[in-house]
Amino acid sequence: MLNPVGDSAIVVTDLSKSYGRVVAVDRVSFAVKRGTTTALLGGNGAGKTTTLSMLLGLLTPSGGRLTVLGADMPDDRHRVLPRMNFTSPYVDLPKRLTVGENLAVFADLYGVRRPRERIEAVVADCDLAGLVKRPYGSLSAGQRTRVSLAKAVLNEPDVLLLDEPTASLDPDIGDRMRTYLERYQRRTGCTMLLASHHMGEVERMCDDVIMLRAGVVVDQGSPRALIERYGRGNMEEVFLDVARGRADAKVAGTAAEESTA
Amino acid sequence: MSADISAIRYTGLGAAARRVRAILRRHAYLIVKSPTRIISMMYYPTVTMIVWAFLTLYLAPTNNFLKDAPGFFIGAVLLWDVLFRGQLGVSLTFIEEFYARNLGNLFVSPLTLPEYIVGQLTVSVFRALVGVGGACLFAYLLFRFSIFSLGLPLIAFFVNLLVFGWGIGLAMSGLILRLGLSAEELAWAAIFILAPVSGVYYPIAVLPSWLQPISLAVPSAHTFEGMRTLLIHGVFSWDHFWAAVALNVVYLALGAGVFAWAMRNARQRGTLLQMGE
Question: Could you give the CA distance from residue B125 to residue B104 in angstroms, rounded to a whole number?
Answer without folding.
Answer: 25
